[in-house]
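## retry 2 of 3
previous attempt timed out at serialization; input unchanged, resubmitting
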Amino acid sequence: MLPNSADNIAGMIAGLWNDLGYRSGETGQYCYFYDTNTNRFIVEWYQIHDWSTGTFSETFQIQLLNPTAYPTPTGDAEWLLLYQEVSTQSLGSTGATIGMESNAQTNGFTYLFNSSYTQGAAPVGQGVAIKITTIEPTILDADIRTVPIPQTLELAQNYPNPFNPETTIEFAIPKNSFVKLAVFNVLGQKIATLVNRDLTAGVYHEQWHGTADSGVTASSGIYFYRLETAQGVISRKMILMR
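## retry succeeded, writing output
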């Protein structure tokens, strides 16, 4: 729970604390930069795997909004926690924490701890955003709408196509499933693995940057991307033009 002075970690900011970290063979990335266009400091965990098994990967961001551009009544900065891919393993396993505390570890809050949410907190999942602010909330009278779960397995045409240097692949899975999404050359040889993990039902977007798993830049030509789940297998063609 946060705040917590017993862990000797001052000022913890937990976007998804569940022993995520670099391990041998890790293919994910930690990224951070200051976006001058939107006046916010962004830290991203991109497909970072859990430390214990390396099976489940998470993609999410923590954004610190510059208070000079986003003022609040108290002068405190606003925070955004944005989740693109979050496994049920990480959200439900012991140790999963979302929250933050002051540097003195005397003030803070807990959103999620050991699979238990704070009263009134919305469940975290794909496409969920949490905003931390001192601005009073505005309650709107509006219908509650939910994102529909796909009814069938779908694999859309990549866009752009042809592409250079990267393209986006959208797919939808109707049930929780272990998903494989890979790129093959015209000889049927697999050259890049984009997804190889458990996913919950929903719509996903993956990017291919035209690079093989070996790190070699793929040459111009025709490639195939294949989606494989327990519900079936779908393949489509794409064209890389250098």
